[in-house]
Design goal:
Blueprint: H1 3-36, H2 51-73, H3 76-79, H4 85-97, H5 104-122, H6 133-140, H7 143-167, H8 172-201, H9 210-236, H10 239-261, H11 270-292, E1 312-316, E2 322-326, E3 335-339
Antiparallel strand pairs: 1-2, 1-3
Membrane topology: Multi-pass membrane protein
Family: Belongs to the NIPA (TC 2.A.7) family.
Pfam families: Mg_trans_NIPA (PF05653)
């Protein structure tokens, strides 16, 4: 394996370990906070006083920084799919620390993610050696990538201005599509910024070039938009459905954008490209299986009187008299006419 790719691989694995464990720390903090006050799901902020929640935040920041640096040393087609390893870390830690049972199919999903990631690493392309941000700019303004960028902007406008207001609440692909498509541009911009910072620290100042600041503005704009629509997707749909779909779409568009801009697959054999695609499909399958075995969180009860009020059914006898009965009672000779929850 190339030394540069090895550094990127190690950083990506470290990033996944920190990000995966951060979910567990934050969940433990949220559980403790809900015992002493209102939960975060109903507007409580007691978790801000919990050290475990802050440990989770710090580990997530460290993980994201490691992921940021990983893009500097390795191509996006190697780093991005390895994000699935964070799912394995969180699932395994949740099994031992949160007592969230990892089913046998979930173990199979973890195994598939590991096997697929190994295949991707073994057949990943070599990272290009870039000496200035101007070289990255030349790659960004080549006709093929400009066409991709224009297509992304056009599709984004249609999804945001037409589809989201009409179908966003019912079609899961709208919100996830927006944050996945724009996420590919986020990764390209972040990679450019990371390389510029690396070169600057090595003594070649890249901050004097206007291209560096353009990449920075694009990255900030894309990140804000991406997080906004990802939060909308998580708030509207089940997390167990959002996560695998988002991972699949985001990774696919990122690999496609990186292949166009940085020509990652240039010089690779057909067998290597096919092996990497098979590895990605294997990781995707493992992610879907792992999420499908997750137990959904219990629904939040917003009606405070529901747990206290009995379920009552009204019955009419053959002689015309009305009677009512508890839900647990049994009166086979009665005919049900109305239930209390009919009016809810």
């Amino acid at each position: 394996m190339y030394s540069s790719n090895l550094k990127g691989f190690i950083l990506a694995v470290v990033s996944s370990a920190f990000i995966g464990s951060s979910f567990i720390f934050k969940k433990k903090g949220l559980i403790r906070a809900s015992v002493n006050g209102p939960a975060a799901s109903v507007g409580g902020y007691g978790y801000l006083k919990e050290p475990l929640w802050w440990i989770g935040m710090v580990t997530m920041v460290i993980g994201e920084l490691a992921n940021f640096v990983a893009y500097v040393y390795a191509p996006a087609v190697l780093v991005t799919p390895l994000g699935a390893l964070s799912i394995i870390v969180s699932a395994v830690l949740a099994h031992f620390l949160l007592k969230e049972k990892l089913q046998k199919m979930g173990m199979l999903g973890c195994l598939l993610c590991i096997v697929g990631s190994t295949v991707i690493v073994l057949h990943s392309p070599e990272e290009q050696s870039l000496s200035s941000v101007q070289e990255i700019w030349e790659l960004a303004v080549q006709p093929a990538f400009l066409l991709y960028t224009a297509s992304v902007v056009a599709v984004m406008l249609v999804l945001m201005l037409y589809c989201a207001p009409r179908y966003g609440q019912t079609n899961i692909l709208i919100y996830i599509g927006i944050c996945s498509i724009i996420g590919s541009l986020t990764v390209m911009s972040v990679k450019a910024i990371g390389i510029a910072i690396k070169l600057t620290l090595e003594g070649t100042n890249q901050l004097k070039y206007f291209q560096t600041w353009i990449f920075g503005m694009v990255a900030v704009t894309c990140i804000i938009t991406q997080l906004n629509y990802l939060n909308m997707a998580l708030d509207t749909f089940n997390t167990a459905i959002v996560s695998p779909i988002y991972y699949a779409m985001f990774t696919s568009f990122t690999i496609f954008a990186s292949a166009i801009m940085f020509k990652d697959y240039s010089g690779q054999s057909v067998s290597s490209i096919a092996s990497e695609l098979c590895g990605f499909i294997t990781v995707l399958s493992g992610t879907a299986i792992l999420h499908s075995t997750r137990e959904p969180d219990p629904p939040l009860i917003t009606d405070l009187y529901t747990p206290l009020s009995p379920k009552v059914s009204w019955y009419i006898q053959s002689n015309g008299e009305w009677k009512q009965k508890d839900e647990d009672g049994s009166t086979p000779n009665f005919l049900t006419v109305l239930r209390q929850d009919y009016f809810k």
